Amino acid sequence: MKIERLSSQHKQAACQFLMNHPYSSMFLLSNIEKAGLESTGEPFSGEYWGAFDEAGELTGILAQFWNGNLMTQAPDPIALEALTSHLLQTVERPVAGLVGESEQADYVLSKLNLPADAYNTNRCEGLYQLVLNDLQLPINALSDRFKLIGSSEADSSLLFDWLKEYELEAFGRAPSDAHDEHILNRVAQMQKSDSSWVLLDRDQPVSLSGFNATLPEIVQVGPVWTPPEHRNNGYARVIVALTLQAAQQRGVQKSVLFTDNPAAAKAYEAIGFKQNGSFHLALLKEPIELTATASV
């Protein structure tokens, strides 16, 4: 097994390999599409390492992105072990977290050997898939009372409040000036993109949904947020269904999302999603240098 730093010359091979496992590779595929394989420090860029077998075939990928998060796609246990060992011996930047297919993520996290209290969140979520031809629109989704507006049209302060509440609830973050700055940056990025929307019910904003990773044929749903005062009205299933219907009209064929929230899972299943796998989300309270804590 040979470990090699990936570069632009590997893009075709990397994408072909990842498309064999698209539903658990959306962040990797989307980031490569946006920023290539070169690490520039800009959003979505990262350092990529590939595991190659004796025949020179790519059998696994591990990446560390601009924000310090690790991501992996290495179904072959030998490739995953080799990539993890290489990471622990060569990593130069602090690690902020890890996301990926659950069994792979569990292995990497066991080798990072970080204390349990280092994490804001460290959990396994259900991975849900939907072929958009099977999308089931809620009965009231096409009612005149509902309207979708792009995040660029939405009030910035509303997006700030909703995204802040979303991250505090979903990721166990603590309020801070640094987190507020992070949310401001997220709002700015969201309003520049065309991949997030607000649902209006009789002109009142009630729910938010977006795509956090996109390919021409697949989109990954997230974040989805309905403020507590608007919950239990079916807004999440309406906005997710409407945004996926619009994506299908643009030629998107499939969708994926992950959640560990039973109420959210019920809403997604109601519009056609089915669980097929699991996804691990581990985010640290603060980035950590691995040299003194990790074990090979």
TrEMBL record:
Outline the extent of the N-acetyltransferase domain: 146-295
Highest taxon in the source lineage = Bacteria
Kindly give the Pfam families that the UniProt entry links to this protein.
Acetyltransf_1 (PF00583)
Residues folding into a coiled coil are: none
Q: Which InterPro entries match?
A: Acyl_CoA_acyltransferase, GNAT_dom
UniProt-recorded name of the protein: N-acetyltransferase
Can you name the source organism? Answer: Pseudovibrio japonicus
Recall the taxonomic lineage recorded for the source organism: Bacteria, Pseudomonadati, Pseudomonadota, Alphaproteobacteria, Hyphomicrobiales
